[in-house]
Amino acid sequence: MRVSKAQAQANREHIVETASVMFRERGYDGVGVADLMAAAGFTHGGFYKHFGSKADLMAEASANSLAQSTAAAESMSVQDFIDVYVSRDHRDGRSTGCTMAALCGDAARQSGDVKAAFAEGIERTLQTLGEKYPTAADAPQGEGRTRMIDLLARAVGAIMLSRACPDDSALADEILAVCHASMTESLPAIETPEEDTQDS
């Protein structure tokens, strides 16, 4: 039976979404094409109707999940981001959590297409949250972005270190607690014009 173009596109999107979850849970090398297609509800042979190679799917799935993370960050303040990201819930929710924390180590060993997907996702996250980083009115141009790069690197590193510890390890929780407190304390308290008026 011939599949319509609309159905073929829906099938492709379903495969990409399934892959993005499985890659975050198991890593790129921990997911085979046969297992992936079975999890998505399709036959192994159907894979190559949609993708030229597993590497092509890795890049597309990574771009997809990174875009979802960026979209979620659009409604967050920088403090909200810290609270959600550097948390036990995120640490334990590997398959649905941030692709950067789950796969940055793997991506460093992958093709240029996968790295490009990560670079674009990281850039979008920095743009989204860098614009919200609390800075003084007279702060140098680009200071929010610079500080957000530092904060994002610490947030991703905190989750990666915590996940490297046993699930019930006190150290896993300590890493998150220390990093969360440090990042929160690093956020500058910027007075609003209203506050300035009240103080005068």
TrEMBL record:
PANTHER family: TRANSCRIPTIONAL REGULATORY PROTEIN (PTHR47506:SF7). Pfam families: TetR_N. Gene3D superfamilies: Homeodomain-like, Tetracycline Repressor, domain 2. The keyword ATP-binding does not apply. Residues 32-51 bind DNA. Residues 9-69 form the HTH tetR-type domain. The lineage of its organism: Bacteria, Pseudomonadati, Pseudomonadota, Gammaproteobacteria, Pseudomonadales. This is TetR family transcriptional regulator. The keyword Transcription applies. It comes from Pseudomonas atacamensis. Keywords: DNA-binding, Transcription, Transcription regulation. InterPro entries: Homeodomain-like_sf, HTH_TetR, Tet_transcr_reg_TetR-rel_C_sf.
